[in-house]
Here is the input.
Amino acid sequence: MKRGLILGAGLALAGTAQAAQKLGEVQPQRSPEQVYSAVCGYCHGQNVGPVIRGRALPVETTEYMVRHGQNAMPAFRPTEVTPAELKALAKWIEQSAADPKEHGQ
Ligand code: HEC
Here is the structure.
């Protein structure tokens, strides 16, 4: 009896994880602006790290930095910034204009 309950709880948990994963798959990706302000913008433009907008930074530079990090810049996993989000973000940074409100190191 007890065993059945535990097994049931385990199955329920597995179901939840599966549902969460499905939810993740259909979730629309965040826009580059959203990722930037949520993940990058509290350092970049805030005197922690260099300003990265308005410098035509190559897509490859941003993609490398985000996945590998460097010194005080942390690396971000694909679960934190998805591959699709990173692709759009890198392009957006390359093309973005400088924001006069931002300040670098
Ligand atoms: C915790 C603070 C922090 C966060 C968050 C952060 N960075 Fe950085 N970033 C830095 C620092 C500090 C450097 C300079 C590294 C060095 O001195 O080697 C840097 C360097 C960079 C560079 C290289 C700039 C250049 O002049 O060559 C790029 C591109 C970059 N970051 C992109 C991003 C992106 C995109 C995000 C968001 C996904 C992000 N960073 C999040 C701190 C941060």
Notes: The mean pLDDT is 85. The pocket of heme C is lined by residues 39-40, 43-44, 48-50, 52, 57, 61-62, 65-66, 70-74, 76, 81, 89 (CB under 6 Å).
